[in-house]
Amino acid sequence: MRAAVLIGALCAVGAMGSPLQKRVYETDLSIVTVTSTVTGGEQAATAAPVPVEQKQAAEPAPQEQATTVTSAYEYTVTATSSQTSATEVDPVATSAPAPAPEPTTTTAAPQPATTSSSSEVTTAPAPTTSSTTSAAPVTTSSATTSSAAPSQSSTNDDYQAMILENHNIHRSNHSASALAWSTDLESTAQQLADGCVYEHNTQIGGGGYGQNIGYGISAQNIGMMITNLMYNDEFDYFNNLYGEANPDMTNFEKWGHFSQIVWKGTKEVGCYTKVCNTLQNVDSDGPIPFTVCNYSPAGNYAGEYSDNIARPLGHAFYAVA
């Protein structure tokens, strides 16, 4: 009977000492049979405090496991924080390869955006332009070209008229006088265009002139290059620069053609369009028109922008279809 009481007491102690968290315990259960002789008023079972079970109830090992679990979660949080910071760096890593497509776009150069190889030169930087238009070769001869060279237009007078019209209509909007045609400037423009190398050269014939170049627009549609690409597309980029003698040149390649076209100090222009079977420095699969326009006196002089580029008068918008 006393043995049964002892076993029940052991079970009760085990239940009371059980922790809230689930743990694995190894319990050594000892059954002790005690035979006692009870006499008088002696209290029995004075030797039954069950020392074995007390040891199991206070095992510290499971508490150490709980601490280990806590630290594991802390590291997990740290790992999560590391991943978050890595994600913040990703845009930088993503933006680094972003310029990779740009060389492709620049090489093909079909974009209306313009560039200049001499934007840092203080004496007449010569901007360039390009076009997405793919024009058919022009084969009609003109009076000023050799028999072996493709012509720049069906009639030279028409070509000159289009050049002057598409310059002067915009110059008038900026209070600049009309340009006149110069055969000398036309001749130096032809020498550069005949070389079929897409680059600036303002030293031919002694130099001293400004220069705009572009490709992809035929001689018959030359107004599209001057008006649509060189003036209209660049007009807004100069909006905040009027009145500045030395404007910020960061975006010069985006407005350098525009500024040369409306430069008050320029009085003459001469252009030439050559159809090149192969135009060096340009990725092209077939013949492509290459246009050179030379200006005198040259524009885009540092320190002289405020005196030579006036705010627009607000004339009606003009574009070549």
UniProtKB/TrEMBL annotation:
Compositional bias of kind Low complexity: 51-66, 76-155
Keywords for the protein's UniProt record, in alphabetical order: Signal
Region (Disordered): 42-155
InterPro entries, per database record: Allrgn_V5/Tpx1_CS, CAP_dom, CAP_sf, CRISP-related, V5_allergen-like
Family matches, as CDD domains: CAP_euk
Pfam families: CAP
N-terminal signal peptide: 1-17
GO CC annotation, single: extracellular region
SMART domains (alphabetical): SCP (SM00198)
Residue stretches making up the SCP domain: 158-303
Gene3D superfamilies the record matches: CAP
Matches recorded under PANTHER family: CYSTEINE-RICH SECRETORY PROTEIN-RELATED (PTHR10334)
Name of the featured protein: CAP domain-containing protein
UniProt organism field: Byssochlamys spectabilis (Paecilomyces variotii)
